[in-house]
Specification:
Number of domains: 2
Distance between the termini: 54 Å
């Protein structure tokens, strides 16, 4: 088996897929450089990300499968699941080896895997769009911390750009150590070195806008006042708002 080591980016993975064809590898294992083992150094094929190669693979896929299917493929990549690179390669190889559409051929393991995984990532995307709660800092920045199961920041960017176009904001993924920063003009990817007192960005009370605690308290009171105790259904509530998301929600604090 030939091991291909890539930089972890989507373009890097597409380049790895291109190299598989270029070097005519028949049995490969694509792994990100962050997890490769020392004993691979001598025998691994190091993939150098090449946008031209990546573009050729992507354009070729767009001619073979629908726009919806390419979105599913990208979402599956963002799942970061172990060995997903190889399942995606199997999907690509199946698509390129068939003249007819393969995206609904769920008898093929790779097609079924992409459909199921993309659905999970899409669900997480919608939950992040619904559950993100911003906190205003002294310099007027609206800040939110998230820790999603999947790398959904690239998927939620458009939603927040449109919804909060008149505010400066940053959404930071504490698990993946990067965030999105919107400056009223454009959104950029950022990395932040938090001070020790902030608990890796989880406690920003020291830099809150002076009215932020009041706004949080008002929101909590509003949330409590609209609840009808006689209709309380905890099981249903948890089904729609799982406990693991409560740490994002202002109304669930205190």
């Amino acid at each position: 088996m030939q091991t291909l080591v890539y930089d972890g980016s989507f373009s890097g993975w597409l380049t790895a897929a291109f190299d598989t064809y270029e070097y005519r590898y028949t049995n490969v294992n694509i792994v990100p450089e962050t997890v490769r083992q020392d004993d691979l150094f001598g025998q691994a094929h190091i993939v150098h990300t090449n946008e031209t190669k990546a573009s050729r693979v992507w354009k070729g896929l767009q001619q073979r499968i629908s726009a919806q299917a390419t979105k599913q493929l990208y979402k599956t990549f963002l799942s970061e699941q172990q060995a997903m690179e190889n399942r995606l390669l199997q999907y690509v190889q199946y698509a390129f080896s068939n003249n007819s559409s393969i995206e609904e051929d769920y008898s093929h393991p790779a097609v079924l895997y992409v459909a199921q995984t993309a659905r999970q990532v899409h669900r997480e995307k919608h939950r992040m769009e619904a559950f993100v709660r911003f906190q205003k800092t002294k310099d007027g920045l609206y800040y939110a911390l998230i820790e999603p199961d999947f790398n959904v920041l690239p998927l939620i960017q458009d939603h927040f750009e449109k919804r909060y176009a008149d505010q400066q904001w940053m959404i930071y993924d504490s698990r993946r150590k990067y965030g999105l920063y919107y400056d009223l003009q454009q959104t950029t990817t950022v990395q932040v070195n938090f001070e020790a007192t902030t608990q890796e960005g989880k406690d920003l009370a020291a830099i809150h806008d002076e009215k932020e605690p009041l706004y949080q308290q008002l929101w909590q009171h509003y949330f409590n006042s609209v609840n009808i105790k006689a209709r309380k259904n905890t099981k249903l509530h948890i089904r729609h708002v799982p406990r693991r998301y409560w740490r994002y929600l202002t109304e669930k604090q205190g």
